[in-house]
Amino acid sequence: MTGIVALYIFMLAAFTGYEIIAKVPVILHTPLMSGSNFVHGIVLVGAMVALGNADTTLEKVIGFAGVLLGAGNAVGGYVVTERMLEMFKASGAKAKQKGSH
Questions:
Q1: What is the pLDDT, as a whole number, of residue 100?
Q2: Would the CA dihedral through 77, 38, 6, 47 be positive or negative?
Q3: Which of 39, 48, 56, 77 is 20 to 30 Å apart from 71, CA to CA?
Q4: Domain membership flag for residue 8
Q5: Residues 6 or more apart whose Cβ sits within 8 Å of residue 21
Q6: 47: buried, middle or exposed (CB in 10 Å: 19+, 13-18, 0-12)?
Q7: Are 39 and 74 in contact (CB under 8 A)?
Q8: Would you say residue 11 lies in a domain?
């Protein structure tokens, strides 16, 4: 695969992803985030496999960066999902939860 074809696929995927996400109703964002967190976990596993198969120093640096960014993306997704779910709780439940800590 040439660099031009890879760039074309990347741009097409980015545009398609943006168009799909832009049309999602607000109420469906939480389930969508949960699904994307699952995908981020798979990406992280793929980055770890790539790092494990790296031979040169450059490959190891790129693999480490992939693992680091993939882990940050997965953790950040779960944090955002938790905050979104917090917004759906009743205000009385929030007050009880804050008082118990």
A1: 58
A2: positive
A3: 56
A4: no
A5: 32
A6: buried
A7: no
A8: no
Locate tokens 């770890």: which residue?
48
The reply to whether 7 falls in a domain is no
Within a domain: residue 41?
yes
Question: What pTM did the predictor assign?
Answer: 0.56
Could you read off the pLDDT tens digit of each residue along the chain, which spans 101 residues?
677 888 888 888 888 878 877 777 777 766 776 677 777 788 888 889 988 988 999 989 988 998 999 888 888 878 877 887 787 776 665 556 666 55
**How many angstroms separate the CA atoms of 40 and 79, rounded?**
13
Using CA atoms, how far apart are residues 37 and 19, in angstroms rounded to an integer?
19
| Site of tokens 């995927």 | 13
Q: Residue 31: which domain range?
A: 26-100
Spatial contact of 32 and 24, defined as CB atoms under 8 Å apart: yes
C-alpha triplet 12, 14, 20: angle, nearest 5°? 100
